[in-house]
Amino acid sequence: MEKPMLKMTGISKSFNGIKVLDRVDFELRKGEVHALMGGNGAGKSTLMKILTGVYQCDVGNIELEEKLLSISEPNDAKKNGISMIFQEFSLVPTLTVAQNIFLNREPRTKRGFIDDQECVRRTKKLLEELNVPIDPNSPVEQLGVGYWQMTEIAKALSQDTKILIMDEPTSSLTKNETEILFEFIQKLKDKGISIIYISHRMDEIFRICDRMTIMRDGKRVLTEECTQLTMDVVIQHIIGGSLGKSFDWKERVYDRNREPLLRVKNLTSGSRVNGVSFEVHRGEILGIAGLMGSGRSEAVRALFGIDPIDEGEIWVDGKKTKISNSQDAIKAGLALVPEDRRVQGLVLDHSVKNNTLLPILSKVKKGWFIDDKKGDEIVEGFVRKLNIKTDDIFKQSGLLSGGNQQKIVLAKWLANSPDILILDEPTIGVDIGAKTEIMEIIREFADQGKAVILISSELPELLALSDRIIVFHGGKVTSEMNRKEIRSEEALQHAIQG
Ligand SMILES: Nc1ncnc2c1ncn2[C@@H]1O[C@H](COP(=O)(O)OP(=O)(O)OP(=O)(O)O)[C@@H](O)[C@H]1O
Ligand SMILES: [Mg+2]
């Protein structure tokens, strides 16, 4: 048996007396891609933050190449060749690729000035070695997100990284960029670098990972070669049972002959939305497919009054409605669960309760006081329904795990019970169990005679939920299909590629 290069043994960690990691063992071999999996709040990010010195464990050992390490701050991890690519990028957008890679450790000339040329030369060499087609001199802000990530990785590698941790690296990447990342990961492996890969996307894991460790409720429940595992076994270990709900499409009934609840006519906004028209009926789930940058998110942002509408009309329930800002949109019965929820959707230092109740304060307010009992009941209902992992509803939202934060944003807009619910990538970052729950909630919502607009890049999800699908391309709607007419995922993929 090959000796592991990294060994974490008996790692435990509590926050405020609550155990988040319970005697976790984790081993990593040289040059392997090791998936770290588990439900939202299982403890994946926390375990990795201990490895990178962001947190310290209460008990446990970390050994690297048979040497005991003491990692008490991020620099200790870096010195030992352990780097993490965070979801929130740490690059400075206005600086060039080369400047970012050597930020704060720039090569100097003999006279002590920053040696820009040397910086560019070394970056060029590094990028060539990795076969990444980016210009060291281009400002990072001019690159696609995928290349931001590669710049981050190149930066990590320029510091002699042996272990690279990626926490949900593909959630903001297009399909193409994801492919580029995967090729890149293969190259890193060939160089003998070990990768710890966190993702909720099962297909990715099986494609690129060698082994997998699954955590549940702060404990390790399994470590195994991926080739020895089936999807069912993995799901079983992640959720501790079998999936209650399925991904199968069910034909739904609603009246398509009535006046649509929402009619969008020739909507134009900025350069990304060019004359978009569509309608949604009561009880209908309208899916929107398209590549990233096809104008899907921009169109719903304009519809919700975030971006200015340059041209076009919006009709709600047969009445022409003017939407100049989000207040107008909310008044007209719309709600938008945005794509970058962590930025747009939550006040991180407010409690779970306050975030959830934010849009409906007027409904739970009694005179000048918030009716606390009613508010608590509403929030606790959502915590149960969406299986939000939190100590209580008064916990600061920023301390919840990534996926659980996403669920709060969803709860917040569901609590407001809008007539028209717009969801932009609602299940990114949520675990497989919660995903099927959320899908069921969306169906129930539409069953009440309300309308849903669903943007999703996950075709199985789109196909499972939608009654009708429209496809965006270049800021326009280029095709429309009844769900019944769509034979396969490939057929939809074909329409999306245009
Ligand atoms: N600083 C903190 N203070 C209090 N609780 C915390 C803190 N950091 C993490 N937690 C708790 O630890 C648990 C594990 O969180 P962690 O972020 O490790 O989960 P995760 O497995 O990465 O989940 P996800 O898939 O949602 O990202 C959660 O219940 C979270 O609320
Ligand atoms: Mg996490």
Overview of the molecule:
This protein is α/β, with parallel strands linked by helices. The chain folds into two domains: 6-239, Rossmann fold; 262-497, 3-Layer(aba) Sandwich (Rossmann fold). The protein is 34% helix and 25% strand. The protein contains 18 helices and 22 strands. The chain has helices at 44-51, 74-79, 97-101, 116-130, 145-157, 175-190, 202-208, 231-239, 296-303, 326-331, 341-344, 352-357, 361-364, 372-385, 402-415, 432-447, 459-465, 489-497, and strands spanning 6-15, 18-28, 33-38, 59-64, 67-69, 82-85, 163-167, 194-198, 211-216, 219-225, 262-269, 273-280, 285-290, 311-316, 319-320, 334-337, 365-366, 369-370, 420-424, 451-455, 468-473, 476-482. The protein has a six-stranded mixed beta sheet with strand order 6-7-8-3-9-10, sandwiched between helices. The protein has a six-stranded mixed beta sheet with strand order 16-19-20-13-21-22, with helices on both faces. The chain has a four-stranded antiparallel beta sheet with strand order 2-1-4-5, with helices on one face. Strand 7 (163-167), helix 6 and strand 8 (194-198) form a beta-alpha-beta unit. Helix 5 runs parallel beside helix 6. The radius of gyration is 24 Å and the shape is globular. The termini are far apart. The model has no long low-confidence stretch (mean pLDDT 90). The structure holds adenosine-5'-triphosphate and magnesium ion. Magnesium ion binds at residues 44-45, 167, 401-402.
